[in-house]
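Following up on my earlier thread - several people asked me to post the actual chain instead of describing it. Fair enough. Here it is, all 279 residues.
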Amino acid sequence: MTGLVLEGGAFRGLFTAGVLDALIDIEAEIKYIVGVSAGVTNGYSFVSKQRGRNLEIMNRFIDNKRYIGYGNLIKFRSLMDMDFVFDEIPNKLCPFDYKSFNEFDGKVLAGGFNIETGKVDYFDQDSLDEKNLILRASCSIPMLFPFVKIKDSYYADGGLLDPIPVAKSISDGNDKNIIILTRNYGYRKKESKTNNIAYKVYKKKYPKLANVLKNRYIIYNKQLDYCKELEDKGQALVIRPTVDMNIGRFERDRLRLKEIYDNGYDEIIKNKDKIINFL
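Reply from S.P.:
Thanks for posting it. Predicted structure:
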């Protein structure tokens, strides 16, 4: 079976949104999806077959201060009003099709980083509730978003430790994978001053989280190398942006975000035959 692996990347995820809409248009049948952070939030709309939904959300709410704004850090201890993003939007303003999602006859997994165990736990679609706690957890970047409690554990962004979860897909039995990245070919993550600050903030109370933050760039680059190795062996088809992705994590320019979305869509249409043959 072929797995679909979705990297995160905050608003760079508009590239993934374009890719997934194109996969719907070419009627690609994929029964296993695994992702983290923005990757899996886009993936949910792919599973529910709501073509264009993620682009619509960006267009409608990008200027809404509740959707994204530094003032939220004071009011909610979060860059986003998480109740607005993961409750009001999917349940009222831009409805998520829970019925179609629940009828999906495959598997979709969302990764969340357990800050106490230091591991990524993967939640399947049966774990979804209408407050979308799983997606909140998978997107919760330390210092910008609060940790999310699920049962007895607290979770942060799944992309901290497993930013490109292809190893999870392989361990679940998928010998081939389509991997959607949100960085250009040749990109390498560098050591981050922000992550070094976060390391100092968390090292006493959450040492496992702190160590992952400190080494995040090493983890990410190793996973990039693994993707390239799989690609060279013909075991993975890697889709990367071909437009410049040197933008902020929370880019606000609609035209740039639409350009990124269009690039994702066009890359699939351009490679339609190759993708169908791979599947």
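The first strand starts at residue 2 and ends at 6. That should answer part of your original question.
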